[in-house]
Amino acid sequence: MASNETTAQTVNRFEGVTHYQNLTPAPDLDQKTLNKMAWRSCFLQASFNYERMQSAGWLYSILPGLEKIHADNKEDLALSMTHNMEFFNIHPFLVTFAMGIILSMEQKKVDIPTIRAVRVSLMGPLGGIGDAIFWMTLVPILAGITSNMAIAGNIFGPILFLIVFNIIQFALRFGLMNWSYKMGMNALDTLMEHMKAFTRAASILGVFVVGCLTVTMGGTQINLTIPNGTTQAYVAHTATVPTEDVSKFEVISKDTDGTTLSGMVDASGNPLATTDADGNAVTAGATDLGNGMSEVTYMETVTSPVNVDIAKILDSICPKLVPLALVMLLYYLFSKKNFTPIKGIVLVLIIGIVGAGFGIWPSIWG
Amino acid sequence: MEYSALQVILVFIVTFIAAIDQFSFLESLYQPIVTGMVIGLILGDVQTGLIVGGTYQLMTIGNMPIGGAQPPNAVVGGIMAAILAITLKLDPNAAVATAIPFSLLGQYGVTLIFTIMSPLMSKCDQYAAEANPKGIEHINYLSMCLLGLIFGVVVTLFFIGGQAVGSAVVAAIPKWLSNGLSAAGGMMRFVGFAILLKFMMNRDMWGFYFMGFGLAIIVSGISSLATPALLILALIGFGFAYWDYQQNTELKGSVAVAADTDGGEEDGI
């Protein structure tokens, strides 16, 4: 108990402290320290947890700078580390922007409440912008292109993905670190001024790309045919027969109403005509081969079932209607019915399995 | 299929690194498109690994950690999908759907770890108050190792035990179920798209969605543009977005400048 109490005293001794002991601004951080912190920012979420989220990782990232700034006063370093252990959560790829600003404030020995307010105010806008840049724009486009390369068996798909993603990531990490540290407080104003327009523009591109992805990656199609009666068609046959037998082929069989079911001429004596499998016109008739034999072309009625192909009908209205309908349905459930992603995935599994039929009817998904 | 000890160790190492990478480090090594290829290399079937990785990646588009949400875990899901497809010779779409339960398990694992880590924060408070940078560093390294270890052990166990169990399960799966899983696997990506839309959409954005949909139908109808289709479409989309940004900032910019000038005068007085 005794040791617990001392620990509590150590941790709580800064309660209500608003200023550093040494208020002399520290010298500028050198480029090496800035780079080291930008590299460390990759591990912002190393100890992510539900209580403080990224706070320990945030402190880990800015420690090289804090150690330099408060090198002359260990008590100030402890104070700085303590208030930087407070709850923190920001977009992991844009964190260096916040780091630069906070470090410039620490360096100027700004009072703790102001540093805290700026740090907290940075959490909101950067999260939205980071999501807009990375998860809604860069990754869908990049992963969309490279996934298709990978599915085609191209090993450069994953490699290209890694290269492009990381070039952008590290350019942002190191660029923002330097830029925001130098701009200090002003950087926040610059960002806030155009933040709304930027987020909106990124959302437009994102929404547009999702529309494109619905088409280019929506492979789902309904594989359903509905029987719709039957149709009768003549199929041509060719035979070589003695010339005197040709007349027997004129009408081989008749339907009750006089329609020729099989033969060369219809009820009024005109030759029958049809098209063969290749689409060429064929006319019934006889050709005398000159040796007492004739080649006859006669017709036979074949009854075949007619199917309505749902996919063809849907495509004639607009291609990719099934993917569009599924995306719209899921969007409705997520945004209006508060569906969680897991629920959506379960629903899709059910649609897929029910659509494939419990061994009763064939799969309707093509 | 029998596996050498080396392959088992490599699968463990890949999972260990990918588990850490999903939150820290490059945050791109863990993506299924990458792990699919790597698992393919380890198990000697790069082609299948690439196809499954690409298929799983398409599903995860949009299913990303937006706004701190925890989507089904892409590390466990992506690695297991590649393992299942290669070892059990599953169709890529079916493998992706079969890996979903594993990815849900991964998601629970992440939730568990994020909860376990919380009490460690009071230890960090103590190190901070003592001005002990080494302590803070050690806690971060420890957390990463713990995360990698848990994921690595779980996936390796699935990998070793799964091949006997998995073969029996796959043999027992009726045709309608494998068809259904395959169809569902192909539809999973729509979940991701819909979640993206939920975060980005508001009433004046719908036009841009349908514009993208329509233009994509036109571009994808031209077979010579099949490969660069998305890039071309992204360029068109960028045009719209940039134009909109200019419209907003130029109008707003002039207002802001005027306001600044006023403020300056007031300050001067």
TrEMBL record, chain A:
One of its GO terms (cellular component) is plasma membrane. The chain crosses the membrane at residues 87-105, 117-143, 155-176, 197-217, 313-333, 345-364. The keyword Transmembrane helix applies. The keyword Transferase does not apply. One of its GO terms (biological process) is phosphoenolpyruvate-dependent sugar phosphotransferase system. InterPro entries: GatZ_KbaZ_carbometab (IPR050303), PTS_IID_man (IPR004704). Pfam families: EIID-AGA. Keywords: Membrane, Transmembrane, Transmembrane helix. PANTHER family: N-ACETYLGALACTOSAMINE PERMEASE II COMPONENT-RELATED, TRANSPORT PROTEIN, PTS SYSTEM. This is PTS mannose transporter subunit IID.
TrEMBL record, chain B:
The lineage of its organism: Bacteria, Bacillati, Actinomycetota, Coriobacteriia, Coriobacteriales. It is a multi-pass membrane protein. The chain crosses the membrane at residues 29-52, 73-90, 96-120, 141-164, 176-197, 209-242. Keywords: Cell membrane, Membrane, Phosphotransferase system, Sugar transport, Transmembrane, Transmembrane helix, Transport. Its main location: membrane. One of its GO terms (biological process) is phosphoenolpyruvate-dependent sugar phosphotransferase system. Pfam families: EII-Sor. This is PTS acetylgalactosamine transporter subunit IIC. It comes from Tractidigestivibacter scatoligenes (Olsenella scatoligenes). It is found in: Cell membrane. One of its GO terms (cellular component) is plasma membrane.
